[in-house]
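Course assignment 3, question 2. Fill in each field.
Student: A.L.
Task: Predict the tertiary structure for the chain below.
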Amino acid sequence: QVQLVESGGGLVQAGGALRLSCAASGRTFSNYGVGWFRQAPGKERQFVAFISWSGAATYYADSVKGRFTISRDNAKNTAYLQMNRLKAEDTAVYYCARHSGGTYSDRRSYRDWGQGTQVTVSS
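Answer field:
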């Protein structure tokens, strides 16, 4: 079992930046990949970014490519999502989750979700 806790969300103006953190406990953090997803009101949870267990491989949704950066620090059991040049359409609850196998962009490939952190971008 893995426990994940997101933090770092908040209210920011369009064009601003935030850094989300995902602190993990339980299973060895360096043994699994981590994904970030987001869910806006009335919409399905959608893939944002993925990082492999070592950090060597990263993938992004087209909508955030070039603006968001995913990273991890295995010594601190923490993954991060640096979000720059934020837009109003980035407003959502952001979740991190443990990748348990399968397509990295499919939420069914993940287990052990965090509780989420709200990001609100004002235009």
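Instructor remarks: Residues 34 and 98 are 5 Å apart (CA to CA). The chain has a mean pLDDT of 97.
Grade: pending
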